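Hi U.,

Before I forget, here's the chain from the pilot set. I'm dumping it here mostly so it's searchable later in email.
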Amino acid sequence: MTFILVVDDEPRMVRTLTINLRARDYDVESAADGRSALQIIAERAPDVIVLDLGLPDMEGVEVLRRIRETSVVPVVVLSARQDSDDKVEALDAGADDYVTKPFGMDEFLARVRAAARRAGTEAESLPTVQTADFVLDFANYRATRGELEVHLTPTEWRLLTALASTPGHLVTHAALLRAAWGPSYGRESNYLRVYANQLRRKLEPDSGRPRYLITEPGIGYRFMV
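Structure:
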């Protein structure tokens, strides 16, 4: 049974989500603050985390950053914040998806199903990719530059998986967005610019003159090996 942790301090929201998730045979536990959530994560290792950004003891983004220090578990962020900067910050910190309150329950459940499907399945079929400057071990989610290990977020791994699956070939913005965040995404190309810049800083020898992650303006990206 898929275990989902709901992290939210609104009792009515927690009750609604719990009822709907359990009705679909998910194992559900809830936490009303960040510290409780981190303790549950350490003890039970959820399959999917549903995380509100407005928690009483710490910002949800800080909880997300702490999760990403040790885990690649899919995280679906719930928030009443609709500003694009908040979305980019959450995605930048390692969120897998971002759902704005209020939302339709069918849409939310679809996002959870997509996150659960993506968990641990994307990278296993790809071989290790070795370049002159870095190595990407997709099966173990391990990236290295020389002797140094490079931390990549789950979203960055999904983008690299989509690109490295067809090295040298163009992957469109829409295809990358769907691969990284699910079928409801397709036009948020600003997310891709943020992540492309991050990946270049982490992997390229000169991020200002990329050799591996090549932009095709207005269309998509190519991964050159």
